[in-house]
User: What shape does this take?
Amino acid sequence: MQPTQLVQDNTTVILDLSSRTTRAGFLSTEFPDQSGPRLAVDSAYLRPSTSSGESGGVKTYPINRGQVDDIDGVEAIVRQVLYGEAGWPEEPLKGYHRNVVLVEPPMQPRATREALAKMFFETFQVTNYFSIDAAAASLYAVGKTSGIVVDVGYDRVDVTPVLEGVVHASSAVRIGGFGGHAMTELVAAKHGLQYDEAEAKKRGYMVNKEEEIKSEDDAPNAPSLEDLMGDQIGGVY
Assistant: This one.
């Protein structure tokens, strides 16, 4: 059994876990670049139903408001990414190195981090494993080691100080119940849209703004944030 194009000899897999989307990148060179293959999957799995009247399992998200609640669920998602999407052989090949870098949601308890490391070594038989807090990884991505990272997720907002690459968890703040999901609901209420329609409108705003940054002359006209959100944004832009 040979690895597929995504996972070749000595490929390093970078996994980014979050509440609703798990992202993966595949690096086969010494230094990271933008040319490597990437994918994203839903951070949900089918948990076996405990009710005799239900079949097919229950769609479950093992990460909620930034916290890993279900290690077995994370294992199911990682298995889908590595074996199902990327073609990682289930049995290690001779001389084949399994390298994993895990970007963890901020402020995970020590017990959770240890359980994740144990899962990768014992279940997925990785050769090398490295974990990094998402806040520190965000700064590294822009060439910084110190700063305050504001991470707006699906159902929480994290504000995390990082100094010289060290995350100061004792000074970090997490606001649960607010994030992309709450913003979409607000857009839906303002414009009288269904949730999926509001999500598409919100994403369209973000894409247009990104195009404006690339080229202000050629970009399509995007609605202002005030038009998108209305007066309910409370002066926060």
